[in-house]
Write a sequence for this structure.
């Protein structure tokens, strides 16, 4: 990176964090600290919801995922607009009506305190883990690429978010997220424009012919990770859990100036989320085409790790792999050009033959890349901590963008890390204060300054927990999938509890409490049996409807055996 | 506890008198996007 890149990067990151800290430095009441200042408009809420959901992993890992596997991942979001409509119509008015700080407070009012603690506990466990992944993801990529120390990168990113989140609370998070989203949009559009300028005119047709543009797949197969059906049904339940019951999102929209502001903020996401994700996966698919025509496309995109081996004692083996890949890559280029000519000729049999030949060349090239990955992992086990696809977009940024734009794109990565982490920390601190501290110390509930102080301490604690987790973690999955898998394991039972709360008035606290524990056990059993027997593994999105349905059915079954629930506060 | 807000308040969006209208519009956008993606897949994949 040049001096210009560093100025853009540090100016953007530290400038936004300092601005957020300064603007919200006088936050003193618990309500303002946890919910914002009740003047937040729908635009800010909409961007804040979007920023909390889309972490660095979205911008860094998703293009790489599309590069390797095509754009089918976009189906993951098909259930999101429908879930947001339900949240707007049912969940949000109840939260606003009851004036709760957290979604789990509502469970305490609707059921009992043990169910509230269970909900808060499930949230704290899964969001605490995800917060660690959120901070680890950009750090591992950026430290590898730039040669920075991983531990220092994690600590710097983590502490920056902790400082302004602790200082200004929810208001600071909303304020900074708005500006961070502006940086993210600006950076991603810049990268897309540069990429388009470098692509051949047949780019979309080539990507399609090579199997990268299957956006919708109607195959009814439970084992396929991304299909229309898993996206619609599994994605619906995953989104409903996330937006309706996860405090990191609930906190973003319950503090609006009015009910209308929260609703419009969510509807903004319902309309623009799928197009935005499509834009990001298309970036990955087009990167694939771009690299097909580059003479020096690397066999491995994690170049720092690869180059260490090339120059190491086993260098001859790695250089041989590079040469084999270069030969196959040149052959593939020729086959792609031949397919373009055949496709334009209008002769279907010539086109089919050229396509078969092109795909065979692609398979041969992929086989060598796999061989290279295996060799790299064997020689350097540390390289297993990342997936090579996570380095594709970063490689493009560093080798193809002009100076200044490189700094802007690295700022995108940090801005997205900070914005999602800040939203998560804010929610973790709030839930710890409201659902744990105030529950176990009810006499302190009216001591406003003490509660604010405790909320700040809890936020700082979770920030340090996330930093600690990030320092010791490693993942075998693509990073964005790791996030969704953790969510799909812990969300379904929690969503089931809320579904019962909203729609099954006769079910009481004890029934839903034990049902949630049973449903969580079912989800864990399905997940681990699938991991032990891959032939029986189902796509992880299906865990969401299965776990939620199990919780609802167990609740109804148990309630039939238990005494009728006592009268509780009416909520709807 | 704050004063409860009217659930049936106007969305305040030009062209929409009720929230049901807003939800139907968003649902329509969703259908249009999925249809567009299905056509995109049919044409290019």
């Amino acid at each position: 990176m040049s001096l210009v890149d560093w100025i853009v990067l540090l100016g953007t990151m530290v400038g936004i964090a300092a601005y957020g800290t300064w603007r919200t430095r006088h936050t003193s009441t618990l309500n303002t600290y946890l919910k914002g200042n009740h003047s937040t408009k729908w635009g800010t809420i909409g961007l804040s919801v979007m920023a909390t959901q889309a972490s660095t992993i979205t911008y860094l890992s998703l293009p790489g995922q599309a590069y390797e596997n095509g754009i089918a991942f976009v189906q993951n979001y098909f259930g999101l607009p429908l879930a947001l409509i339900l949240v707007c119509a049912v969940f949000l008015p109840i939260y606003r009506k009851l004036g709760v700080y957290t979604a789990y407070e509502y469970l305490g009012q609707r059921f009992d305190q043990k169910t509230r603690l269970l909900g808060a506990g499930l949230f704290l466990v899964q969001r605490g883990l995800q917060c660690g992944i959120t901070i680890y993801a950009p750090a591992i990529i950026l430290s590898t690429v730039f040669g920075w120390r991983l531990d220092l990168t994690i600590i710097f990113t983590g502490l920056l978010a902790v400082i302004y989140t602790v200082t200004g609370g929810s208001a600071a998070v909303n304020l900074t997220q708005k500006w961070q989203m502006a940086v993210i949009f600006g950076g991603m559009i810049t990268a897309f424009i540069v990429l388009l300028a470098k692509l051949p005119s047949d780019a979309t047709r080539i990507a399609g012919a090579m199997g990268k543009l299957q956006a919708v797949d109607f195959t009814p197969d439970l084992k396929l990770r991304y299909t229309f059906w898993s996206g619609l049904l599994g994605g619906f339940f995953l989104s409903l859990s996330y937006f309706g019951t996860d405090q990191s999102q609930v906190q973003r929209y319950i503090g609006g100036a009015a009910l209308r502001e929260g609703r419009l903020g969510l509807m903004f996401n319902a309309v623009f989320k799928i197009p935005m994700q499509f834009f990001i996966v298309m970036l990955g698919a087009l990167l694939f085409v771009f690299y097909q025509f580059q003479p020096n496309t690397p066999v491995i995109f994690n170049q720092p790790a690869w180059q260490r081996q090339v120059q190491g004692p086993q260098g001859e083996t790695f250089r041989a792999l590079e040469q084999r890949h270069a030969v196959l890559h040149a052959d593939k280029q020729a086959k792609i050009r031949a397919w373009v000519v055949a496709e334009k000729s209008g002769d279907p049999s010539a086109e089919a033959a050229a396509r078969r030949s092109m795909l065979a060349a692609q398979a041969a090239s992929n086989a060598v890349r796999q061989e290279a990955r295996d060799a790299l992992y064997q020689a350097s086990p540390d390289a297993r901590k990342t997936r090579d696809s996570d380095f594709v977009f970063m490689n493009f940024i560093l080798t193809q963008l002009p100076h200044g734009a490189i700094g802007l794109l690295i700022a995108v990565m940090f801005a997205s890390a900070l914005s999602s982490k800040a939203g998560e920390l804010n929610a973790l601190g709030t839930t710890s204060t409201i659902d744990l501290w105030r529950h176990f110390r009810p006499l302190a509930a009216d001591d406003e300054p003490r509660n604010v102080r405790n909320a700040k301490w809890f936020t700082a604690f979770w920030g340090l927990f996330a930093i600690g987790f990030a320092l010791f973690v490693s993942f075998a999955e693509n990073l964005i999938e790791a996030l969704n898998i953790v969510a799909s394991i812990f969300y379904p039972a929690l969503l089931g509890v809320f579904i019962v709360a909203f729609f099954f008035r006769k079910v009481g606290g004890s029934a839903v409490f034990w049902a949630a524990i049973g449903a969580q056990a079912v989800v864990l059993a399905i997940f681990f049996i699938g991991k032990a027997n891959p032939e029986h593994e189902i796509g992880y999105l299906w865990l969401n409807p299965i776990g939620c349905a199990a919780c609802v059915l167990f609740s109804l079954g148990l309630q039939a055996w238990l005494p009728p629930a006592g009268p509780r506060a009416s909520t709807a | 506890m704050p004063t409860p807000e009217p659930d049936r308040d106007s969305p305040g969006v030009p062209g929409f008198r009720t929230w049901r209208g807003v939800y139907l519009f968003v649902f329509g956008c969703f259908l249009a996007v999925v249809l567009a993606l299905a056509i995109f897949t049919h044409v290019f994949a």
